[in-house]
Design a protein that fits this description.
10 helices, 4-stranded antiparallel beta sheet, subunit c (vma5p) of the yeast v-atpase, domain 2, alpha+beta, Alpha-Beta Plaits, single chain
Amino acid sequence: MGSYLLLSLPTSIVKSGDKDDAFAAINSHKSSSETTLLPFNVPDFKIGTLDTLVIQADELAKLDTAAEAAVIKAGDILKSIFDGNETRVSENKQVNEKSFQSYLQSFAWNKVKYRADRPIPDIVNVLKTEIHSLDDDIKAKYSSYQSVKTNLQTLQRRQQGNLSTRSLASVLKSSHFLTSEYLTTALLAVPKPSEKEFLATYETISPMIVPRSVFKISEDPEFALFGIVVFKKHAAELSHKARELRYVPRDVTYSADANVQEQAETKSAEEQAEKLWGETLHLARTGYSELSAAWVHVKTLRVFVESVLRYGLPLDFVAACWVGRGKAVAKVKESLETQYAHLGGNAYGRDKKGRIVRKDDASVAELAAGTLGGGSEYTPFVEYLFEVV
């Protein structure tokens, strides 16, 4: 799992106002070899009106959350279809045939899919449609696969287990069943330790059992399957009494083709499950790549929109991304927030020991709602901390 701190700061943090110098100033907060600062290229988008930017800041915050959830879901599906094999999962969680970090390191705005010369609301709508569509398609395909897989497992369980639960199609013959207007054959699965007692007492389990009619059909290490002839009108009572004695009635309607049909059904389910497994893998792998790329584009737009709202015009900011282990990146974040707390204006102050602290009051909440989208925490500069598993 990698931690990422995507941020932008005005170039005024250095006297020269130069982007390279500003990047170097940010990089000076490196806490250890466990963190790396990557440059992050943000295109110049059409700014539009301030009202539009405020609306889009909120839309992008929501879309960011939705995109992250979709990426996580695609990753979870890959983990599920590979039964938790982390090596196989890692091999398939690629973004444009690269690791997420490598993709981010070489990130360039996709001008073909998301035309940067279009108004920001148009780009957001394209991204929103793509993310929701991919997410829905992946979930639907996975749901179909899970349904077929569950059906296959049910069919396979019917072929396995002991004689008290498994399908009896492979052991039953037409000769096991009595065809009569008044009589019927009842099937009972008897635990092996109770077999002798059953044979000695079966005629007394319920009324109207035909004497000396018991016969063994099959057995396994746990149960023996017996047939008993009983009058039809007392068959239900026999089943009830047998359960009280811990014998398992098997209510089976005999069919000569049952075994063939079950085998054919199981084979068909196996083929369908294998086909859907491949389709789900392809869609989840492709979806993970495209959703991750779309997610980075959403974050790029957020950096731009919120940098304009924070720092104003003319545009003069530097964007970068810290990459590393969680605690190391968190330490860099804390260092940067302390160094540039003055950018937060009245939202930040000092405690009794002189340490920089964020104020938690209504005015700060209004700042967050107006510049970062509803529900976000106000920070002294534009920054997004996120993780990718």
